């Protein structure tokens, strides 16, 4: 087809035109096929492609180690060892101060009783004489302090009465035979070392003596009789002469 006979130029032109059209059509068709395949691929990609998300970083939850727990426990134990004795010491000091205050109030009340009745009350009736039955009318005049009502103290001629605790101490009143012109009040801690560390004694002189017992049985009239008054440091209760 390179050489066209003379007189066939029109045919040559048609052939060239047809070839160009075929070539253009082929290119156009190929382009359309490529575009259609691309669209199909986009659709398939859109339907089946799953976007990968960035993995979340796990934040590790760090707990306490055994060493850290042991350190905390040791610190708590140390603080408790420091605080608990101070709390107990404060409690015993408060009870002892209350006992001294109660003894002073009792001394004043007993002097009031003596000024009215010309004698101190007997051991068996001292609460009733000073406070009445505590459930009804009080005696006239009413001798205080109210903490030592008959409902709280069961007076007797013997040792510390059962249920006689007032602010950590037991109070034991002993009056002489009628007419009573003397008396003693022995004050013993209910729990030695926990409710009190000292025991106290007073009598008609109004002096309050104290001592530091090594055991609960050391708080006796004999041991306290010659001990220091509360304005001096207490001795051991078994050192009756305070030497």
Task: Walk me through the topology.
Elements: H1 9-48, H2 66-117, H3 126-131, E1 165-166, E2 169-175, E3 183-189, E4 199-203, E5 208-212, H4 221-224, E6 235-236
Parallel strand pairs: 5-6
Antiparallel strand pairs: 1-2, 2-3, 3-4, 4-5
Quick structural summary:
The protein has helices at residues 9-48, 66-117, 126-131, 221-224; strands spanning 165-166, 169-175, 183-189, 199-203, 208-212, 235-236. It is an alpha+beta fold and 243 residues long.
Task: Give a description of the structure.
The chain has 243 residues and is α+β, with helices and mostly antiparallel strands. It has a domain of 168 residues. It contains four helices and six strands; from the N terminus they run αααβββββαβ. It has a six-stranded mixed sheet with strand order 1-2-3-4-5-6. Strand 5, helix 4 and strand 6 form a beta-alpha-beta unit. The chain starts with 8 loop residues before the first helix and ends in a 7-residue tail after the last strand.
Q: What portion of residues belong to β-strands?
A: 5-15%
Number of helices: 4
Q: SSE string, helix = H, strand = E?
A: HHHEEEEEHE
- As a percent range, the share of helical residues equals 40-55%
Overall number of strands: 6
Average pLDDT rating: 75
Largest sheet: 6 strands, mixed
Low-pLDDT stretches are 42-48, 154-163
- Tell me the structural class: alpha+beta
Q: Going across the major beta sheet, what is the strand order?
A: 1-2-3-4-5-6
Query: What is the terminal-to-terminal distance?
Result: 152 Å
Query: Rough shape?
Result: rod-shaped
Rg of Cα set:
54 Å
């Amino acid at each position: 087809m390179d050489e066209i006979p003379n007189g066939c130029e029109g045919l040559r032109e048609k052939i060239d035109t047809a070839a160009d059209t075929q070539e253009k059509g082929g290119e156009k068709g190929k382009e359309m096929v490529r575009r259609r395949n691309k669209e199909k691929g986009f659709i398939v990609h859109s339907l089946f492609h799953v976007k990968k998300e960035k993995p979340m970083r796990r934040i590790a939850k760090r707990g306490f180690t055994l060493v850290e727990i042991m350190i905390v426990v040791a610190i708590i134990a140390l603080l408790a060892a420091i605080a608990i004795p101070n709390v107990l010491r404060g409690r015993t000091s408060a009870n002892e101060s209350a006992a001294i205050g109660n003894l002073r109030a009792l001394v004043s009340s007993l002097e009031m009783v003596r000024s009215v009745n010309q004698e101190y009350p007997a051991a068996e009736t001292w609460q009733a004489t000073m406070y009445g039955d505590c459930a009804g009318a009080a005696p006239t005049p009413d001798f205080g302090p109210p903490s030592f009502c008959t409902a709280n103290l069961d007076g007797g001629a013997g040792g510390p009465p059962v249920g006689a605790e007032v602010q950590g101490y037991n109070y034991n009143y002993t009056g002489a035979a009628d007419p009573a012109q003397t008396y003693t009040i022995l004050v013993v801690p209910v729990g030695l070392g926990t409710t009190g560390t000292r025991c106290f004694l007073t009598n008609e002189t109004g002096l309050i003596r104290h001592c530091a017992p090594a055991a609960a049985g050391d708080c006796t009239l004999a041991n306290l009789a010659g001990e220091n008054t509360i304005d001096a440091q207490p001795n051991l209760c078994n050192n009756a002469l305070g030497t």
